[in-house]
TrEMBL record:
This is Uncharacterized protein. It comes from the Eukaryota.
Length: 82
């Protein structure tokens, strides 16, 4: 994820330090702030993954409910007749 550069300014603390480039956002971070940046990204990814899994579970539950298929057919028929 990160490659060592010569001393540049850290995006977070704006101090001149040895920095590492985040390939995802192309910003330069000192080691402390690169670690924090990665932790934030990991946390955000976990949140997105959790939301995805919850959404997937709800969709699967709705697919298993036979009444939902009947309601969709009724709506489709109503659209045709309207």
């Amino acid at each position: 994820m990160a490659m060592v550069n010569n001393k540049t300014h850290c995006f977070t603390c704006n101090k001149e330090k040895i920095t590492y480039s985040c390939e995802g956002c192309a910003k330069e971070f000192c080691l402390i702030h690169l670690t924090e940046h990665r932790q934030i990204l990991t946390s955000e990814l976990h949140h997105i993954t959790d939301e995805y899994n919850e959404f997937k579970q709800r969709i699967n539950e709705q697919k298993q409910n036979p009444q939902n298929g009947l309601l969709i057919k009724q709506i489709n028929q109503w659209e045709i007749e309207s």
